[in-house]
Amino acid sequence: MRKAAVLFFLTAACLVTDSRRGHSEENVEVHGFILGHFAHLVPALEPCHATSSDFLVSEGRIRLDVIAWWDSIEAEVQIRGDLVADFVTNSFDVDLREAYFDYAAGDFDFRIGRQVATWGVGDVLFINDVFPKDWVSFFTGRPMEYLKLGVDGLRTRYSSRPVNAELIVLTNFTPDDIPTAPRFCVYDPFAEVARRDGQLPASTFENAELALRLYRRVGNFDVSAYFYRGFWRTPSFSPDSLPSTASLTTFYPRLSVYGVSAQGSALSGVLSLETGYYDSRDDHNGNDPSIANSQWCFLVGYQKQLWKDANVGIQYYGEVMEDYSNYRTTLPRPLPRQAEYRNVVTLRLEQLLHHQQWRLSIFAFIGLTDEDYLIRPLVTHRLSDNLLLALGANLFGGENDSTFLGQLDRNDNVYLSVRFDF
Amino acid sequence: MAGFAEQRPQQGSTEGAEPTATQIMKNAQQAFYYLGEDMKVRVTMELIARNGGKRTRVMTMLRRDREEAGDQKYFVYFHEPGDVRGMTFMTWKYPDRDDDRWIFVPAVDLVRRIAADDKHSSFVGSDFSYEDVSGRDVDDDDHTLVGQEQLDGRPCNVVQSIPRGPGAWTKRISWIDLESFLPLKEEYYDAQDELYRVFTADEIEVVVAGEGGGSRSYPTVTRRTMENVKTGHRTTVTYDSVSYDLGLADEDFSERRMRRPPRSWFR
């Protein structure tokens, strides 16, 4: 894959050079950007970051976006990749974001290859979006597109008046990218355990993930029904023994998700509703403490324009754990206990100024049950059509070190992004 | 400029009688926002600051009317600047209630509704509001015929419009071309009753759609400017490759097309 990616960059670089000379093939477009992103811990260097740098992220990226299409048939190839220079580890890498082939025939659209998929109506709250997320990127302020990781597979879309359908068959399992030591200071109940092994679900026929979405308009609302059969994207840990653990095995338990969502104009704004049932197929009774229990999730969101170029968005998210008593009885001592009901609210405020050259925004994520929070102020300034500056912060906190956001308390960071488009 | 009279709006004035101010504005709306059954155009928008600093947006816009003076569907695909390239934007416009709006962000494969009040939102940071781009219900204002004037040698009806409800402006004076019904100039007044925005139709071209005996001529404003006289900021919009009556279908204004518009639309 590495060789293929390098080859892609060389080819794309040739195309860029070629198009500069004015000899470019008519049906090929090459674009991209140069991105510098720097996220610095505040205050600098907490003890648990001792092996790391004051920078959570310090990197330069060159994005190339190559699109080629045919006029005679509705077909297209798109390849997007980043050449990454990581100044923290002093290393280079290639990040192939997307690489797919599109083909349309009648009411069907096909997309095969690595692709980003986003479902559901939440704003950074995901229920039926079962696709992998890069929380490391999100928590260090990389541009929003880096929150989503591409999946490898085949997507088929059918469009018709009565119903539209989208089926994605994912051939290779991709887990979420979550903050881990040593770059991040995170809660780890097994911090003393050095021996860890485990693997991702193998890319076999039985392990292929299926994600189906059926959607249509109902009255004034866009309504979708979802079904997913695959795996949890955050790892589970199985200790060899408790409380004196010598080794840990990480694994990704099986999961199915069923859900619906609706989004439409209401109350002079946009109303969003979504619910889903997570069926934890490897732990139906909730007796296995290493595997998350089945749960119900739901969210209600509302966004509205306040005044010129200003918007507000609020969301409420709830989660109910099934078989809670089994969970309580089987949970081993050193592990922190989750609540049966979890409530979260989010608030987003956004103001554009000076002909949208400036964007001021704040996003707050408040865990009412977990008593934790994340606050993300962000100022974006467009210096010209090609040059964008972003200055923002991720401020975490919580009553408890073991909650999702509370554990990140010592990872507050301020970040600067500079992006030049070409 | 010949041939303006060939395609007069349907609900034109009755023979011999003077048209009312409301009728003039209905004709103007028809001529400006509802020409043809549908339309496709490549739009270049230049945002020019007082100090001369210029920013450019390039997009392809499609429009389809579901009924004359009624529901419309709009589709906008962004070509430039780079950070919004490939983004699409769709509006289903209803004269009598809030529009439905969606945005597609290709980098995250996201289609979502957006909340926007079209009277108070700037269209992509320009001096045009959403309402200026896609029209305003004639019945939202009270119209008075102030008189007739020559504007650059063209006879115009001058109409004053006062909004019935609160909005971004409190008074508008429009110069409506007697021949094409197109607004050639508009002055907008703010809450202090001071002039703050001026619209001018800088170039008008007659676009012919269809062939032979079935062909129709559509006088089209192919270059327009909105200037904020208080801030000195102005926006110039240029239309290239305008075409009408392409036979666009309702299905062309769908999530499917937002996610993957046919390349043929951009040729």
Architecture blueprint of SSEs:
The complex is a heterodimer of chains A (422) and B (267).
Chain A: H1 2-20, E1 28-41, E2 55-70, E3 75-86, E4 91-105, E5 108-115, H2 135-139, E6 151-158, E7 164-172, E8 195-198, E9 209-218, E10 221-231, E11 236-239, E12 247-251, E13 254-266, E14 269-280, E15 295-307, E16 310-321, H3 324-330, E17 341-353, E18 358-367, E19 372-382, E20 387-398, E21 413-421
Parallel strand pairs in A: 8-12
Antiparallel strand pairs in A: 1-2, 1-21, 2-3, 3-4, 4-5, 5-6, 6-7, 7-9, 9-10, 10-13, 11-12, 13-14, 14-15, 15-16, 16-17, 17-18, 18-19, 19-20, 20-21
Chain B: H1 21-33, E1 38-48, E2 54-65, E3 72-80, E4 88-93, E5 100-105, E6 110-113, H2 130-134, E7 141-151, E8 154-163, E9 171-177, E10 183-189, E11 195-209, E12 216-228, E13 234-244, H3 255-259
Antiparallel strand pairs in B: 1-2, 1-13, 2-3, 3-4, 4-5, 5-6, 7-8, 8-9, 9-10, 10-11, 11-12, 12-13
What can you see in these coordinates?
The complex is a heterodimer of chains A (422) and B (267). With 422 residues, chain A is mostly beta strands. Chain A folds into 2 domains: 96 residues, no CATH class; 310 residues, Porin. Chain A is built from 3 helices and 21 strands. Chain A has an 18-stranded antiparallel barrel. A 3-stranded mixed β-sheet of chain A has the order 8-12-11, with no helix packed on it. Chain A is globular, with a radius of gyration of 23 Å. The two termini of chain A are 26 Å apart. About 1% of the residues of chain A have low confidence. The longest helix of chain B is centred in the first third of the chain and has 13 residues. Helices cover 9% and strands 46% of the residues of chain B. Chain B is built from 3 helices and 13 strands; from the N terminus they run αββββββαβββββββα. Chain B has one domain: Clam (outer membrane lipoprotein receptor (LolB), chain A), CATH 2.50.20. With 267 residues, chain B is mainly beta. The interface between A and B is large, with 51 and 40 residues.
